[in-house]
Amino acid sequence: MKPFTYDSRAQRVIFERGALKHLHREVELLGATRAIILSTPDQATQAERAAAQLGGRCAGVFPKAVMHVPIEVARAAIEEARRIGADCAVAIGGGSTMGLGKAIALESSLPIIAVPTTYAGSEMTPIYGITDAGIKKTGRDPRLLPRTVIYDPELSMTLPFALSVTSGINAIAHAAEGLYAQDSNPIMGLLAVEGIRALAEGLPALKHNPSDVEGRARCLYGAWLCGTVLGNVGMALHHKLCHTLGGTFDLPHAETHTIVLPHVLAYNARAVPDVMRRIAGAIGAQDAATGLWDLARNLGAPVALRDIGMKPNGIGRAVELATQATYPNPRSLEPVALRELLERAYAGEPPKIDE
Ligand code: NAD
Fold first, then answer.
1. pLDDT tens-digit map of 110-133
2. Which DSSP string do the residues of 1-15 spell out, in sequence order?
């Protein structure tokens, strides 16, 4: 058996339909009395609901989170938290809102209560990202790991179906790369397989009925497990490539992950056949890469980078950036093969399966 080191991390997780009702109790348990509630402008109504739930323990609402945490927004939120004397941050939303909570905590060590409404998984990680002058700087800091996570499937009911699919496949990407991470361990392997299975079952259920609460719960459960994997082990080619594509070409986060993942799995397949078998088993397919490509396509998700804003002349630059950075990946980074990978992803072709 491969040797491993596993540091378990303390987080309190509440999972229940209607769990937002426990927010007041959870703020109280942290000993906080002046929460700042964060959301995007789109989710201001959910933030107001949370504020009403908190009553006197809510010191203010800051509904201005945006994708990739621009430093100006982070500074405004930090200033607002200071002005109102906040002693905890409640982040209600997806990865963008969690990111804003982490930006505040980076400055102030304020404890975060996360109420995730997408499947991105940021609530389970100590990873932050802040964008300054168009460049997103990321890092890890254990102080940023949310202390409490409230999973309420009802809050994800309003997540549009298309976003649910790409967000769910973004979560699957965390688990898939976690399975071949150099620093992985058997616990993460179990979580990854179970997380992928839950999402691969939950997402098709939403196709027939986006308000299917059991389907929503299944996806949120999968997102929790996949997010835990992301928070515990290092990621490889897929995440680096998506980070480059998102940062350099301003492509949307979850859609980029959805399009690129099958191609990276095909690229790595021969180096880690056991991992591919585990992923294929979890999604009920013969082959991991083709199975995920089919899943995305059958659920109506984009499969071509050109359809989400990528320009053909960006492929060369993306290969250059992806091969510049050094990071562990099961297969070495080969410029010619990476170019082919990106060309297929650009055009929306199925992943290339080696015979
Ligand atoms: P997001 O948070 O940007 O949300 C996308 C849109 O969906 C927003 O307008 C939001 O208001 C809306 N939305 C979210 N939940 C909704 C709901 N239930 N009903 C209706 N609308 C809803 O998207 P995301 O994909 O969750 O997060 C992407 C960002 O998170 C990226 O910046 C990514 O880098 C970051 N991220 C970070 C980590 C980490 O560990 N640090 C992990 C994953 C993603």
1. 999 999 999 999 999 999 999 998
2. -----------EEEE
Q: How far apart are the first and last CA of the chain?
A: 29
C-beta of residue 259 within 8 angstroms of C-beta of residue 345 = yes
How far is residue 154's CA from residue 200's CA, in Å, rounded to a whole number?
A: 20
- Report the predicted TM-score, pTM, of the whole model to 2 decimal places: 0.97
**143-194 pLDDT, tens per residue?**
999 999 999 999 999 999 999 999 999 999 999 999 999 999 999 999 999 9
All domains of the chain, ordered by start, with CATH? 12-156 (3.40.50.1970), 161-347 (1.20.1090.10)
Q: Ligand 1 centre from 86 Cα, in Å?
A: 23
What CA–CA distance (Å, rounded) separates 336 from 256? 21
Contact 100, 38 (CB under 8 A): yes
Distances, alpha carbon 118 to alpha carbons 20, 44, 100, 156, 254, in Å: 15, 15, 15, 6, 10
Residue with the nearest Cα to atom 32 of ligand 1?
A: 68
Out of 96, 150, 240, give the residue to mutate to test ligand 1, the one with the largest number of ligand atoms within 8 Å of its CB: 96
Beta-strand (E) ranges in the chain?
12-15, 35-38, 58-62, 88-93, 112-116, 127-132, 135-140, 148-151
**For ligand 1, mutation pick of 9, 37, 39, 40 (most atoms within 8 Å of CB):** 40
Nearest to 200 by CA among 227, 225, 218, 174: 218
Cβ atoms of residues 205 and 218 within 8 Å: yes
Residue of the nearest CA to atom 36 in ligand 1? 95
CA distance 355 to 353: 6
Which atom of ligand 1 is nearest the CA belonging to 158?
A: 19
CA-based diameter of the chain, in Å?
64
Cβ atoms of 202 and 156 closer than 8 Å = no
Q: Distance between CA atoms of 213 and 236, rounded to whole angstroms?
A: 33
- Give dist(CA 167, CA 163) in Å, integer: 6
